[in-house]
Amino acid sequence: MSQHRLVNPLVRNIRALKRVALVRQSVRIEEEIKQGMKKPYNEVIDVSRDNPHATGMKPMSFVRQVIASCIYPELIDSDKMPLDVRKRAKTLLECIGGSVGCYSDTIGIPIMRDSVSDFLTRRDEGVPSASGKIFITHGSDHGFGLLLTMLVRGDRSPLVGVLTPVPSQDFGNATLVASGATAVPYYLDGQQGWRLHTEELQRALRSAREVCDPIALYVINPGDPTGHVQSRESMEEIIRFVYEEKLLLFANEDHQDILIGEGCMFISYKKVLAEMGSPFSDAVELASIHSASKGFMGEGGLHGGYLELVNFDPSVQIEFDRLISLLVLPIIGQLALEVMLNPLQPGEPSYEHYQEHIRETLVHNVTRAFEVLDSLPGISCEPINGGASMFPRLHLPHTAIHQAKEEEQLPDFFYCSRLLEQTGLCVCPGSDLGLPEGTYHIRYKAPPTLNTNVFIILLLLFITSPYLQSENRPVSECLNFLKLPYN
Amino acid sequence: MSQHRLVNPLVRNIRALKRVALVRQSVRIEEEIKQGMKKPYNEVIDVSRDNPHATGMKPMSFVRQVIASCIYPELIDSDKMPLDVRKRAKTLLECIGGSVGCYSDTIGIPIMRDSVSDFLTRRDEGVPSASGKIFITHGSDHGFGLLLTMLVRGDRSPLVGVLTPVPSQDFGNATLVASGATAVPYYLDGQQGWRLHTEELQRALRSAREVCDPIALYVINPGDPTGHVQSRESMEEIIRFVYEEKLLLFANEDHQDILIGEGCMFISYKKVLAEMGSPFSDAVELASIHSASKGFMGEGGLHGGYLELVNFDPSVQIEFDRLISLLVLPIIGQLALEVMLNPLQPGEPSYEHYQEHIRETLVHNVTRAFEVLDSLPGISCEPINGGASMFPRLHLPHTAIHQAKEEEQLPDFFYCSRLLEQTGLCVCPGSDLGLPEGTYHIRYKAPPTLNTNVFIILLLLFITSPYLQSENRPVSECLNFLKLPYN
């Protein structure tokens, strides 16, 4: 039959990301290396996405020991594993029916909802959390995907719109488009640490209303890839905005556990909402997500997350329950999530190593990477207060922009593709995150180890001379800073 | 805002499964047991779904050892694991970027497509398989879900229809409805081992064309829950049917590795199609799925599967590739799939145990369970040739049917709910699998160990006296067969 007539037009609307072309280029390069072709590097380092384990981040031993013991329970009875690991694995194994091969209930393994609810109540210093309003997911995207499946139908006219921050990654592009909604961009302020201005939200909403039916505002806090952490005042402004404009509030709080800036604190939207009191606390409909894929766990391959609904209409939640009844959830991701929500406490045998790992891995290295990056000629970077992504601006010279256009490429992609070819380093062009022409950025997930960081920054530096402006800062100055020779 | 106006009507169309009510009943019962309420049993045994690990099936040690070693790589260097385990884990770990915490590529970890393609070529004795036409998934439902997302759009009028076998589980209900398609039932012949008759397909197609735009025929072989295994002749008839009627063919071949009947063989639709030659082999568009969740692995909690497309229009496959570019796949399920596709070979240290496990677990116990079940008064069962589900018919007496109707319940659900309350055994009512009123069945996944089987059958027996007809076979005769006292 002619299938082509069948193809869902929404699928055709999915925008191809440039990153995909870079991944293909990486595969080709690695194939060439394998076949013995000489390159100035031995492997491709991919820092283009939030995938820390792929760039050398070590997983937390406790998490992995617990999961390995659940997978192969003979380990529980062996002396290979510390006592607290065996104890935790035994408890979890009982909750999942004795085997990780069991299907999970559609609402998650029995303890999960309570675990999330206890975690949220602790985190929000007593703001109550009901386990019936918590939904276990494959990860953050999945949570919003479910919400959008419930709220959006492809044939609605005008289209359903979701106000989405720029820069930000896949959500605006993929999950949204596939559901039949449309992303309405609002722009974060790249001159002021990627802050969100309410005036910009108002402008975006006005222009959205001309082309679609905007139903929700999507915020990411701490920002990804921007590293911005919202202040309480800014969050209150946003809550007032969605209240007045009768929008749902979708909060991606995936990076809540990585805080870099000194004195920087994470406050959840749920807490701010509760503390603002009536009429906001009873009226604003909030959906918030978190997962073990991002944040300090970085266990992207394991797939565990949750979604919490606040103030959702009970009749709508019945429909959501119905949709959830179709879910089949992977067990391993839930185990990772459980350990993330209930980390080791002081006094438990594995505690020391665990805490040290978090501290060392995250804060120190991200801070250091930012300092070095911002010192490079031709590159500038807004401060990183949370999360672990860098989003530096490239000051591309006119010659590079001109050459890119001659080759019919976006200038940022042109830079990324050249960088990958010449150094084996794969970063993501800012245009993939929705940034319009005019300024050029790259997304770069700071690898957790200092050595890898310094190495990557050196690679960025090598490409600097031909393609980036010097901004009066000679290369030698940066090398001096790095205390490494330039050869 | 009033969210209710937003709710996607497709979500409202999702039919609530009675099994969900039984699961809730189970939770309530277990809570009561925990609180010390006296019951004639200590726990609920749930055999209502294909979830063998939940009913005591032991996972294959090799699979779990490999995965545990990938999760916690310190095990690779230890003497805790056999040599072949450590070797396999090392190879796999290299393929996934060194950590199970890494995100997988959207087409799966690099070796996966080749692994599947090699497996298929071996299985189909040389029928070629291209890795570019293979898509790694979270499991079978996910594969069809993706296909339906590509092919179905909610607002198409008339609705897109998929001919779906009855009895069969979730697919007809959930994945399909959520995509906006409609399931058109065709009925398998419960008098003849649940065979599929082409005349019934023609009847179903004619009636479908009055209400929707039927685009595909969905078949399950080996049958689930029916245990029927299609003959080559029957498959050829079906291929001719879809060719003539210009339908896509969706083949769920999830249970291909569990063959029970003596001399029973599995042949894939792809192989039959290839061997039928032109015009069929070039024209019939086939999508086939398999997974590690069902079959002899039964690793439902781990989520690994694949989908193969045959003869799909290249321009349509481009759209499918675009859709796939949104995927984020769990790593652990892919590892389970890889071990399933490349099982141990004779001579490898862990081989003996592995083979023995498969043989003992599956064939012997399913055969035994069938024999006993079919001998019970008030229950009859068609032969099981493949898969591990039982789908016995209940000969409910009029008094039981009458009582069910008085309580406004479906008679099969009435039986299941009573059985659960009185014995702690949870089975699935046939009406959940689409069976219309008139005959009553239960789905019951045969647990893999003989002891559990005998125990469960005894439970079925206890409920027999009040609710099932005796059919002239006294209970004592069955007890004699079981060689167990009736107390």
Characterise the protein shown here.
The structure is a homodimer of 487-residue chains. Chain A folds into two domains: 184 residues, Aspartate Aminotransferase, domain 1; 239 residues, Type I PLP-dependent aspartate aminotransferase-like (Major domain) (Aspartate Aminotransferase, domain 2), CATH 3.40.640.10. The first copy, chain A, is built from 18 helices and 14 strands. In chain A, the strands form three sheets. A seven-stranded mixed beta sheet of chain A has the order 2-8-7-6-5-3-4. In chain A, strands 9, 10, 11, 13 and 14 form a five-stranded antiparallel beta sheet that branches. In chain A, helix 7 links the parallel strand 3 and strand 4. Chains A, B: This is alanine transaminase.
In short:
2 copies of one chain form a homodimer. Chain A has 487 residues and is of the alpha/beta class. Helices cover 44% and strands 12% of the residues of chain A.
Largest interface: A-B, 91 and 89 residues
What is the assigned CATH homologous superfamily of the largest domain in chain A?
Type I PLP-dependent aspartate aminotransferase-like (Major domain)
| CATH domain class name of the largest domain in chain A | Alpha Beta
SSE-based structural type of chain A: alpha/beta
What is the 3D form of chain A? globular
What percent of residues of chain A adopt helix (DSSP H or I)?
40-55%
Mean pLDDT of chain A: 84
Strand order of the largest sheet of chain A: 2-8-7-6-5-3-4
Query: What is the total tally of β strands of chain A?
Result: 14
> What do we call the CATH topology of the largest domain in chain A?
Aspartate Aminotransferase, domain 2
Low-pLDDT windows of residues of chain A: 464-487
Radius of gyration of chain A: 23 Å
Main beta-sheet annotation of chain A? 7 strands, mixed
CATH architecture of the largest domain in chain A: 3-Layer(aba) Sandwich
Please count the helical segments of chain A: 18
Oligomer: homodimer
Strand content of chain A: 5-15%
Our count of domains of chain A comes out at 2
